[in-house]
Amino acid sequence: MVDFYYWTTPNGHKVTMFLEESGLDYNIKPINISKGEQFVPDFLKIAPNNRIPAIVDHTPVGGSEPIAIFESGAILLYLADKTKQFIPQDLRGRNECLQWLFWQMGGLGPMAGQNHHFVQYAPEQLPYAIDRYVKETSRLYGVLNKHLSDGREYICGEYSIADMASYPWVVPHERQRQDMSQFPYLSSWFERIGSRPATQKAYDIAKSINTAPTVDQNAKSILFGQDAKTVV
């Protein structure tokens, strides 16, 4: 059994998609980040970065004590290795998958996240910041579109954690001011993943947990007002 500490963000969706695809038994423990639940001491023992998602695997391979893991990329890699699913088992394939997983973690996610912030949530419109992050999001979409242009259905050929990591960050493409018609191969990939039953189940779960996905002023102060004092 895996305890899954979750909220309805792109990084949260990644793990739900894996869990639904793999058939692992899991128990969702919602952490409402808009209400500050990520600062509860018991959660911080599992996720010291006060961010979701996180997991506790109560049945790790080898039968040792439970293992706690935070950071969505690390969780996907751990679960893929645990189940031997959704990651190539040969050296070259595995390394290709890891490169694209890290590409999402270091590029697509952070840049799209900054895009979201300055376009949707910043208290004032800053044209330079908006232009910077909208363009960089576009560049990253272009990188993935070009990669998919060789006829492959998924990022590494077969469906993998690289796809699960990237898909949730493309879902809000309209809010990112991206025109999917400019990325035909990416668009086909996006539709292909969206049609998977596990993907649909993952997003249905999100709707059932977060029934009012709004960010009010109090939530903004919690989500965007942190500094080193928050950690202390």
Automatic annotation (TrEMBL):
<feature type="domain" description="GST C-terminal">
    <location>
        <begin position="90"/>
        <end position="213"/>
    </location>
</feature>
<protein>
    <submittedName>
        <fullName>Glutathione S-transferase</fullName>
    </submittedName>
</protein>
<feature type="domain" description="GST N-terminal">
    <location>
        <begin position="1"/>
        <end position="87"/>
    </location>
</feature>
<dbReference type="Pfam" id="PF02798">
    <property type="entry name" value="GST_N"/>
</dbReference>
<dbReference type="InterPro" id="IPR036282">
    <property type="entry name" value="Glutathione-S-Trfase_C_sf"/>
</dbReference>
<dbReference type="InterPro" id="IPR010987">
    <property type="entry name" value="Glutathione-S-Trfase_C-like"/>
</dbReference>
<keyword id="KW-0808">Transferase</keyword>
<comment type="similarity">
    <text>Belongs to the GST superfamily.</text>
</comment>
<dbReference type="InterPro" id="IPR004045">
    <property type="entry name" value="Glutathione_S-Trfase_N"/>
</dbReference>
<dbReference type="InterPro" id="IPR040079">
    <property type="entry name" value="Glutathione_S-Trfase"/>
</dbReference>
<dbReference type="Pfam" id="PF00043">
    <property type="entry name" value="GST_C"/>
</dbReference>
<dbReference type="GO" id="GO:0016740">
    <property type="term" value="F:transferase activity"/>
</dbReference>
<dbReference type="InterPro" id="IPR004046">
    <property type="entry name" value="GST_C"/>
</dbReference>
<dbReference type="InterPro" id="IPR036249">
    <property type="entry name" value="Thioredoxin-like_sf"/>
</dbReference>
